[in-house]
Amino acid sequence: MSRLATEPRSLVNFWQESSEVLAGVVPFFDQPCWYTLDPASLLITSHYNPSMPSLPPEWLAMEYYDADDVNKVADIARSSSGLSTLHEATGGDPSASARWQANIQYGGDQELIAALRTPLGEAWGALGLYREAGAPMFDAAEKRFVQQAATHLAEGARRSLLFGEATDPEGPQAPGLLVLTDDWKVESTTPGVEQWLHDLPDGDVEAGRLPSAVLTVAGRALRVAHSGQPAEVAMARVLTRSGIWVVLHGAALQSGTDRRVAVIVEPAHPARITSLLMAAYGLSDRERGVTRLVLQGFSTTEIADDLVVSPHTVQQHLKSVFDKTGVRSRRDLVGKVFFAHYEPRLRDNEHRAQVDKPLRGGPVLDGTH
């Protein structure tokens, strides 16, 4: 799994190869369900399962509107273990769970959901594994393997999303990608990278001198690969000449005896959910902060602790948020934001996966895909 997470590749290809590795260690029914999440909201942005190209609408309704069911992706993404099975979550009797009843209709009985979190704790995805009735229960060793693999899967998913955004940019602030040989010559670039290279300090692209930050990240990536730790990603945060912070990601590419390194440059802008909530609903800074935590499943007390305000203040902010968004409850707020801004992204990504186009992360901001 560590090796698979090393190279930038299409997300669908990464999921496919990861499924093959998992099958050899943790047997499952049919195919895994792979999800990407927006780490700022923990809402689903894509779903991939070749046996189920389109996620059933009723599953999404259960995930975002059924307040009483268990084993929800966002809850697991926030949990300390980052993994849950439906049988454990229901005390061994899942028959009352609408989620279990839906799984049975598709041939599944057991369900294991694991959050894909980076070492920094950001959840970039989730994995669903299923077993048919009568199959052995997921055991401790299998769950431990999934938990250990989850970090590599998160890093691979994040890298694949960046790679996809760089090769098929959605807007002017999309990431850019350049591939260097081991003697620091530029082998290839994507169209979006040139603007970033010009804006990085102490470089002169026309004269053939790459910015020092690019060379530093590239060199670190090659050293990491040479040390036998290929899944670790070299990173740097740099202030550009125009005053924008950007993040550089480096990863060694191994193909035969040639050593190359990919460097992806992306703006270190605030989470897209912040811009979305401001543009779509006119929420204040504090209201956006409260809403983001509601989307992640935080309680009033937890939100108050996180924002260092009183629970009463949180309730006042929530009342204002409800008024501005036209909803009456937290569950309706989560459902409205998901179905208005994330479900279109999910459906577009399902289509993109079928026609071999890169998948995109984050919510839809302007109604275009």
Low-confidence stretches: none
Q: Tally the helices: what do you get?
A: 13
Structural class, judged by helices and strands? Answer: alpha+beta
Indicate the radius of gyration in whole angstroms: 21 Å
The CATH topology name of the largest domain reads Beta-Lactamase
Count of domain modules: 3
Order of helices and strands: HEEHHEHHEEHEEHHEEEHHHHH
**What would the average pLDDT be, to the nearest integer?**
91
Give an overview in words.
- By secondary structure, this protein is an alpha+beta fold.
- The chain has 3 domains: 11-166, Beta-Lactamase, CATH 3.30.450; 174-267, PAS domain (Beta-Lactamase); 272-354, Orthogonal Bundle (Arc Repressor Mutant, subunit A), CATH 1.10.10.10.
- It contains 13 helices and 10 strands.
- A 5-stranded antiparallel β-sheet has the order 2-1-5-4-3. Strands 7-6-10-9-8 form a 5-stranded antiparallel β-sheet, sandwiched between helices.
- A hairpin with a 5-residue loop joins β8 (234-239) and β9.
- The two termini are 31 Å apart.
Give a nutshell description of this structure.
With 369 residues, the protein is of the alpha+beta class.
Give me the secondary-structure topology.
Blueprint: H1 11-23, E1 33-38, E2 43-48, H2 57-65, H3 73-78, E3 83-85, H4 86-89, H5 98-105, E4 110-117, E5 123-131, H6 140-167, E6 176-181, E7 186-189, H7 193-199, H8 212-226, E8 234-239, E9 245-255, E10 258-267, H9 272-281, H10 285-295, H11 300-307, H12 311-325, H13 330-354
Antiparallel strand pairs: 1-2, 1-5, 3-4, 4-5, 6-7, 6-10, 8-9, 9-10
